Amino acid sequence: MRSNLTLMAHPGEHHPAFEEYCECIFELREDHLDVIQARVAERLDVSRPSVSEMIKRMETEGLIRLRGTRIVLTPQGEKLAESVVRKHRTAERFLTDILGLPWALAHHEACKWEHVISPDVEDAITRLLGNPTTCPHGNPIPGSNYMEEPTHPLVDVRVGSAFTVSRIPEELEYAPGMLEFLESAQLTPGVTGTVTASAADGSVTVRLHETEINITSFASNRILVRA
User: Which member of 34, 71, 208, 209 lies 3.0 to 4.6 Å from 193 by CB, making a disulfide possible if both were Cys?
Assistant: First the structure.
């Protein structure tokens, strides 16, 4: 659980909890979700009163501002969020590509690494990996040479049409068992498949590597693909 961070930091650094919240706000916005306190509480698995108290502290620190019920990062908060997200996604790349860890474990470990990787170590890992532009799930690494490409949800692919997986959004990374399922099914960025069936509830069946796989509506509405 990512929320068990104490408010401790070295001089000149931000509290890990502030990093955690800025990262959460950044990722919710990236997934086109309403960035409100209820969403933050749900994503970090903490109580709403705890979120309310932290939002007040972050506002005082100049990391966020409120627009009605919406939470918006300030330029300072945006810079901090990008730094944490960059370290997390770079760490995931290292843990999967170099150490060979499975997706779910790499995600869990990267949640720890993102708070302790120094700029020098981050640069060294980036060089070792050959300057990657995405995490293993296809989400862009801030500050890289990532080029946005047209995508749409898997649920929008017509039966009989082919697709190539582009991104597994962060929202799916926090769904219990989802990373394990997607990796075991080899439904990973760059893989090409064909939609063979769809249901009224939004669930779909796809053929990958000569195997038919059922995808829930929750996942099919969020997995981003290219035609």
Answer: 208
Q: Outline where the chain has alpha helix (H).
A: 16-30, 37-44, 48-61, 75-93, 103-113, 119-128, 170-173, 178-184, 217-220
Domain layout of the chain by residue ranges? 16-77, 152-226
Q: What tens digit of pLDDT does each residue of 25-83 get?
A: 999 999 999 999 999 999 999 999 999 999 999 999 999 999 999 999 999 999 999 99
Q: Are 64 and 74 in contact (CB under 8 A)?
A: yes
* Superfamily for domain range 152-226: Ferrous iron transport protein A (FeoA) (2.30.30.90)
Q: For the whole model, what pTM was predicted?
A: 0.90
Q: So what's the architecture of 16-77 in CATH?
A: Orthogonal Bundle (1.10)
Burial class of residue 80, CB neighbours in 10 A (0-12, 13-18, 19+): buried
- The Cα–Cα gap between 209 and 211 comes to 5
